[in-house]
# Entry
Amino acid sequence: MSADRERQSWEPKEEGEGERLPPGQAWTKRFPVLHYGSVPHTPLESWDLRVFGAVERQERWTWDEFCELPRAKVKIDVHCVTRWSKADTEWEGVHLRTLIEGKYILPKPSAQYLLQHCENGFTVNVPLELAMSPNFLLATHYNGLPLEPEHGHPLRCVVGATPERCGQQDVYFWKGGKWLRGLEFLEQDKLGFWEQSGYHNRANIWQEQRFV
Ligand SMILES: Nc1nc2c(c(=O)[nH]1)N[C@H]1C(S)=C(S)[C@@H](COP(=O)(O)O)O[C@H]1N2
Ligand SMILES: [Mo]
# Structure
């Protein structure tokens, strides 16, 4: 960033900035909405989340049951493949790692990948190791409020980079599915919706793995 321009209040601090903004990205303070298709509106009474595939025990949680799971907050920078980045976004929800360590979910030892199943047949795949990181959250709240319909209400996955600890594995924001309804554990990788349309399967933000 050039020094002859006044820094906007929403721009991240100077310290560590070089490592914080991935190549080809620009900060925004807006929160753009990006998805394929229309915004679903499933009533909470008929909503559920299914856990299936390479697991010892299938699960089905109603909304009330999901709200009883152990909760956490994260602050992450999100980086969209369309080149906008948003710093210090605050999310609340449930860590997949917590569910697995707490034995709410029992993946088979052979499970290596996670396929997020969203409303209207949308899917997105991630390595299980990535989904187990603290930067990956099943989120119900953004900035202390329930998710807006267009941002994934009532439940979405979010993934981003932690400013203090930018990791080699950080991925673009599309790897978090909005309107999540199922978690499928897989032994072999399966491409999701955008990955089948030419988005890079690994989606690494530091290596600019945008499209193939
Ligand atoms: N269900 C669903 N989730 C999705 C998408 C989608 O098309 N459908 N698009 C992804 C993409 S490309 C991006 S950049 C982010 C955008 O999230 P936002 O609209 O909250 O900014 O959602 C991701 N999750
Ligand atoms: Mo995107």
